[in-house]
Design brief:
two-stranded antiparallel sheet, globular
């Protein structure tokens, strides 16, 4: 059985939020994975669904909805692409930091959540074995991962945020990198 980690990391404008090991989802992919046709994930649709799910969680708690920001979307997509290109889950990669991305998006105060997962593979999560086969399932899984981690949940539910952007990148190997940026 090959081990595959689904990792999540969050950062607000005041510094990184480290997730204790018990809050990091650690799924395992079996060597015999589900066979699929050449199905692809619509990354833009997943981005929209994540924004909707985050706003739903905020509304359930009496918080204002976050408006979408084209500049935060662009920076989030660039960062997810960059993580995929480096095969690394991180807020800061060589030549790109959270603060630089927020500045590029004209955001004086903000935060960021990142995650890595898989589609079209059996994965073991905190709620059992999952097989993420479409945009809705992927968006739900990413949002749940972040909501199940206190630091990420705090980032998603901060009252001072007014805008958000989401970037999703799915590699040819079905590895998913996700970035959600927030701005006050």
């Amino acid at each position: 059985m090959a081990a595959v980690l689904v990792l999540i990391a969050g950062q607000a404008g005041f510094g990184p939020i480290d997730s204790p090991q018990e809050q990091v989802v650690s799924p395992f992919s079996s060597t015999v994975s589900n066979v699929t046709e050449s199905t692809e994930i619509n990354e833009t649709q997943v981005e929209q669904l994540v924004r909707e799910e985050v706003n739903q969680r905020r509304s359930e708690r009496g918080l204002s909805r976050l408006s979408g920001s084209a500049s935060l979307n662009e920076q989030s997509r660039l960062h997810s692409d960059d993580m995929a290109a480096h095969d690394e889950l991180a807020h800061d990669l060589r030549g790109s930091t959270t603060d630089e991305r927020l500045s590029e998006a004209s955001c004086p105060s903000g935060g960021e959540n990142v995650a890595q997962s898989w589609v079209f593979e059996d994965i073991e999560t905190e709620s059992g074995t999952e097989y993420l086969a479409d945009e809705e399932e992927l968006a739900d899984s990413l949002t749940r991962q972040w909501m199940n981690s206190p630091g990420h949940r705090e980032n998603m539910l901060r009252t001072q945020w007014s805008e958000t952007g989401v970037g999703i990148t799915v590699t040819d190997e079905n590895k998913v990198y996700a970035t959600q940026m927030f701005c006050a």
